Amino acid sequence: MNQTATSVVVENLTKRFGDFVAVDDVTFEARQGEIFGFLGPNGSGKSTTIRILCGLLRPSSGHATVAGIDVARNPEAVRQHIGYMSQKFSLYNDLRVAENLQFFAGMYSVPKNEIPARIAWALHMAGLDGRAQNPTSALAVGWKQRLALGCAVLHRPPIVFLDEPTSGVDPVSRRQFWDLIHNMVGEGVTVFVTTHYMDEAEYCNRLVLLDRGRIVAIGTPTELKSRYMKGQLLLIECEPLGPTLELLQTAPGVLDAAVFGSGIHAVVADAASMAPKLRELLSRKFRPGRIEQIAPSLEDVFVSLTAARATGKEVAA
Amino acid sequence: MSWTRIAAMTRKEVLQIGRDPRSLLIILVIPLVQLFIFGYAVNLDVKHVPLCIYDRDGTQTSQDLLKHFQATDYFDVVRVSDNYPDVVRNIDHGVCSVAVVVPPQLAESLHSSGQASVQAILDASDSNTASIGMGYAQAIVQSYSAEIQISWQQKQGLAAGAPIVTFQPRTWFNEDLESMANFVPGVVAMVMAVVGAFLTSLTIAREWERGTMEQLISTPVGKLEIQIGKLLPYFVIGITDTAICAGAAVWWFGVPFRGSWMVLFACSMLFLIVVLSLGYFISVTAKSQLGACQMALLVTFLPTFLLSGFIFPIDQMPVVVQWITAVLPARYYVSILRNVFLKGAAVRLLVGDISALAASAVVLVLLATRSFQKRLG
């Protein structure tokens, strides 16, 4: 397989629903055999983009090719080459596990003599060995999602689109699901995945950060963290959080501040010189705990990028 | 077109129907219930009209006349009154629908003037029964007066003077004039319209509602493959229900069957294509199960019941309504059914109805196929 071949090309893609612009002039390329992540809050246009790429929605303008085929002109041809798992669980609850697999094997025209082996493979992959005759409705969410993935890739598609495959799934099952994705990629499959879990975004080879339909950043997780942070990051532990945050947001030298878990992340130009200044400032009113420089996470990048857009500030990238 | 995909779709649909108690209920119970309601309960034949008699004459002659009322199936004498208020009470309370009052001196005035009259009081709140009851009463009185005339003529030595013009009716096709024989073939159309359109109206709507459609249309399956695969099981169900209803009509209700079974089934398949496509179209358009099944009832059950000629004869309808029935496929099918069952009509006599049915099948199949798009929104 050619590792540098592009499998998805998207140019100036726009989708409008009436006055609402769901996807706004999006351009990117995905290479064969990579995990391409779409990260963004609800309503940022992740699902809409994936649906256009699967030929389920017609783009308003711009164009997209999947496996070299134009999705707007020839959606049926695209469907031969892709597997798609929609956001909502969408297998038949009133069918048994094996009946669902059998049905999708039929829909994807898996050759008859290969069907038993493919179904056995999918059952094994989903951890459903020995449960082929179980009613699908009785499966736990994690199992359902893996079964849905099994159904979507029965025909061994070279490109797979997964729309929030792990939402509502417990952490252990999420981990198992990502193991499956890594296995597929190991076999040369291109995987598109949308998520709003930041930890999952770290597993992607490349990421697109979407906010209100627009791409705000694109690159590997490492690139995003180094390139898009406009300063250094300080972790500040100080109670109470609310008043501390207010104080920090107006403090000179603090570019941005936001609550993360039980502490506050503050963006500053120079962490080493700012840390003592902030400690002194906070000590006047409160009793600050740790104040130290930390490596930014994707969430920090994301918050700082979307906050910049929301307040109209330009991102210094 | 891939037959393996169609087969996979059909298999899935059969499994789902088999596990859905609602569908099974519609498939099995609705035909039987309709058959028995229309076969037994709905009866437009007026017989055994409850009658009250009040004989104010009390002679041999008046008793002779009243015996004619007692002797017929059309009336049941439920009360014998001896005063007017009692007669009025019986009518008021619905004890009887018709009261016959014989005036005093009936026999005497017949002898003296050769003329007399008898009073009938009718409860016309049910106008149909009242007018039919009046007809019966008239006929009985007339035949009685004819008898008297003949016996007088004989007494006066005239040769047995038969009435001059007699009426000799021959009823064809439904010899016993039983409304059941008219209804039961129509029930086949009702069952097919309801079962066909109602069941299929859910099939696409259910997939949208449960979110399975998005997954389905992301696969390479063609829309024609979806349509054929989904409708095939309902087609088999529809044909089976037709066979059950037609069989029950002939062997249970004793409706005459004079035509060809082949013609019946060929036309039934045509009508099935019409109703299945209609149900499919509704299902695609409605996108919710509730909306779809309400719509299906509205466009199949009601028009088939009211406007197809199943119960109410089309040529008795206002002209505008008659035009409306022209676009109703069920009308042609009901007409074919009656002709095949009762008249044993040859195919060449059915050409008009069959072509109308075929035309509606073509239109609805196109409509159903066009309406479904493998896209969201």
What does this structure look like?
With 317 residues, chain A is of the alpha/beta class. Chain A is built from 11 helices and 14 strands. Chain A has helices at residues 46-53, 75-79, 97-107, 115-125, 141-152, 171-186, 198-201, 221-227, 241-250, 271-283, 298-311, and strands spanning 6-17, 20-31, 35-39, 61-66, 69-70, 82-85, 159-163, 190-195, 206-211, 214-219, 232-236, 254-260, 263-268, 291-294. The radius of gyration of chain A is 23 Å and the shape is elongated. Residues 312-317 of chain A have low confidence and may be disordered. Chain B is an alpha/beta fold. Chain B has 2 domains: 3-42 and 178-371, no CATH class; 49-155, abc type-2 transporter like domain (abc type-2 transporter like fold, 3-Layer(aba) Sandwich), CATH 3.40.1710.10. Helix content of chain B is 68%, strand content 6%. Chain B has a 4-stranded mixed β-sheet, with helices on both faces. In chain B, strand 1 (49-55), helix 3 (60-71) and strand 2 form a beta-alpha-beta unit. The A-B interface holds A 17, 51, 54-58, 75-76, 79-80, 82, 84-86, 88-95, 99, 102-109, 112, 148, 151-152 and B 2, 4-5, 7-9, 11-12, 15-16, 19-20, 210-222, 374-377.
What's the quick description here?
The complex is a heterodimer of chains A (317) and B (377). Chain A has helices at 46-53, 75-79, 97-107, 115-125, 141-152, 171-186, 198-201, 221-227, 241-250, 271-283, 298-311, and strands at 6-17, 20-31, 35-39, 61-66, 69-70, 82-85, 159-163, 190-195, 206-211, 214-219, 232-236, 254-260, 263-268, 291-294.
